[in-house]
Amino acid sequence: MKRAKQLLLDNIMWIIMLGMIVVFFVVAMQPRKQEVPALGIVDMSSPMARGVKNAKVNLVQYSDFMCPYCSYFSTSVMPKIDKAYIATKQIAFEFRPVAFVANGSQETAEGAYCAIDQNKFWQYHDAVYQHVWDTAFSKGVDPRTTTVLTVEGLKEVVAAKVELNASEFNSCLDTKKYEAKVKQVTAKAQADGVTGTPYILVNGEPVRGTPTFEVINGLIKAGL
């Protein structure tokens, strides 16, 4: 009787141990959620962010308004990404303006923050990129040798197109209200390893090569 009882206890212990082993392997085999580096996390409190909070995919664009491919990316690639993933609330996207490239980079980035003061950042963003693409970059103009957009151009062309309050916008630019801010953001980006523009991150991983729609689309799909 004692022997039978001992055998029963031994069998129960083996079953418990086997169960624990199975649970361990099941847990170990579960795909782990990859932590996104801080650089690649979208700050949804930013007026330059769009999409959905706590999204599976974070898309970050460091961009210079005087960068030719940035203008192409923003006018031709991002609208497709927007329609497929941002408007449908599948991903989070953040635009981060930096001043790397040429004359006008600093001023147009400052203008972006001035437009934020009037709650018209995205309108400003679209107007600047469309203007420089249509008037210069689509024609092969090099912003490093030719001034593409001056402060006066921002005031007279872009501000009018976006319907900004001209007095407030002009004052913001003339007083260089956001000069230090742009320089700070640019320096931080460089310190974080942003080497050029457009610098695109998908869940913290830099996009290698030319960031075409097909490339970005594939990376987003893999992360969803």
Outline of the structure:
The protein is an alpha+beta fold. It has helices at 2-29, 68-86, 105-116, 121-135, 151-162, 166-174, 179-191, 213-223; strands at 49-51, 57-63, 91-97, 199-202, 205-206.
Shape: globular
| Amount of beta strand | 5-15%
The termini sit apart by 59 Å
Tell how many strands the DSSP assignment holds: 5
Poorly predicted ranges? 20-33
Tell me the strand order in the biggest sheet.
1-3-2-4-5
Count of discrete domains: 2
Work out the helicity level. 40-55%
What's the CATH first level of the largest domain? Answer: Alpha Beta
**Secondary structure category:** alpha+beta
Secondary-structure element order, as H and E? Answer: HEEHEHHHHHEEH
Mean pLDDT: 88
Largest sheet: 5 strands, mixed
> Can you tell me the CATH superfamily of the largest domain?
Glutaredoxin
Task: Quote the CATH topology of the largest domain.
Answer: Glutaredoxin
Report the C-alpha radius of gyration, rounded: 25 Å
Structure annotation, total helices: 8
What's the CATH architecture name of the largest domain? 3-Layer(aba) Sandwich
Report on this structure.
This protein is α+β, with helices and mostly antiparallel strands. It has 2 domains: 1-30; 38-223, Glutaredoxin (3-Layer(aba) Sandwich), CATH 3.40.30.10. The chain has helices at residues 2-29, 68-86, 105-116, 121-135, 151-162, 166-174, 179-191, 213-223; strands at residues 49-51, 57-63, 91-97, 199-202, 205-206. The protein has a 5-stranded mixed sheet with strand order 1-3-2-4-5, sandwiched between helices. Helix 3 crosses helix 6 (166-174), helix 3 (105-116) crosses helix 7 and helix 5 (151-162) runs antiparallel to helix 6 (166-174).
